Amino acid sequence: MKKVVVFGGGTGLSCLLSGLKLFPLEVTTVIAVSDNGSSTGVLKEELDIPAVGDMGKVLLAMSNADSEMIELLSYRFKKEGSLHNHPIRNIIMAALIDLKGSLTEATRYMCKLLQVNGTVLPLTEEKVELVGESDNGEYYGQVSVSGNMGNIRRLTYDHNIKIVGEIREKTLDADLIIFGPGSLYTSVIPHLITEEILQVFEESKARILYVCNLVTQPGETDGYSVHDHVGVLNKYLRGRKVDVVVANTAPIDETVKKKYLDLEGKEVVILDGKEDVRVIGGDIFSIEEGKIRHNALKTGYLIFSYLMEE
């Protein structure tokens, strides 16, 4: 069975993983824990723990539990009060960190509870903040960084972190390293500002595949093409380069595109012909409740087919 290690975070990654789990693959997922928004940010500060939000999303995406369990863990408290906007999964993850002693062990327990076929690991056990360095000072925290990437010349953390040891073992044993879709600078790049990760990538013989975003993210990737996304990854990868990119090549309805641009300032990411990397294209999007999402099955199939070809 082929082995893949997926790095990233956020909704896009969850969608990708829900597709990969349908194929005979041994999947390890590594999640950045530097998020500081919404419920995650509140729990992070109040309980002095790493960010748990993206960990919870990924666990649900890879879960084989029944739909009622998924619905329960996805539920957010709606009434005003101390629990307002907290999803059940975040509360449980925070409790398990206390009970099990670490985020890694908390996640391992959740994998059993949710019948996850695969391994889910946090990048680090430490509470960590993303920092954007600019000529005018620093932007502290993922939320601030995301909205000010135009002014930022370098990303770093607020302190040097130690990665979870199992990541090295899984990456060196992998047939393919995958960077998932999601916030380029605040979900994917946080893995690549870690010296230990870069060293492991340099030692690994696995090819690197990137599943490109379908739309741009205001404040982070305005106007970016597929070529631009890959270029940013290659810059941070240091000694390695992206070997292949999976990108959408099918037309998206003009009405949907206009709605995204007018309401959210997002544009469809295009192939501009400047790509100096192998492109695996296809009709890999779907429209769900008016939103453009990766089609999990089609995207997973393209990746699985590439692995079989290799």
Structure in a nutshell:
The chain has helices spanning 10-20, 38-47, 53-62, 67-74, 88-100, 103-113, 142-146, 166-172, 184-188, 195-203, 226-237, 254-264, 296-309, and strands at residues 2-8, 25-31, 119-122, 130-134, 137-140, 154-157, 176-179, 207-211, 244-248, 278-282, 285-288, 291-294.
Task: Give the DSSP E fraction (strand runs of 2 or more residues).
Answer: 15-25%
What is the 3D form? Answer: globular
Indicate how many domains the architecture comprises: 3
Question: In the CATH hierarchy, what is the class of the largest domain?
Answer: Alpha Beta
Taking all Cα atoms into account, the compactness measure Rg is: 18 Å
| CATH fold-level name of the largest domain | Rossmann fold
Cα distance spanning the termini: 13 Å
Q: What structural class results from the helix and strand content?
A: alpha/beta
Mean pLDDT: 94
- Sheet with the most strands, sense and barrel status: 7 strands, parallel
Widest β-sheet, arrangement of strands: 3-2-1-7-8-9-10
| Regions with little confidence, pLDDT below 50 for 5+ residues | none
Number of strands: 12
Q: What CATH architecture label of the largest domain applies?
A: 3-Layer(aba) Sandwich
- Count of helix runs: 13
What string gives the helices and strands in order? EHEHHHHHEEEHEHEHHEHEHEEEH
CATH level-four homologous superfamily name of the largest domain = CofD-like domains
Helix percentage: 40-55%
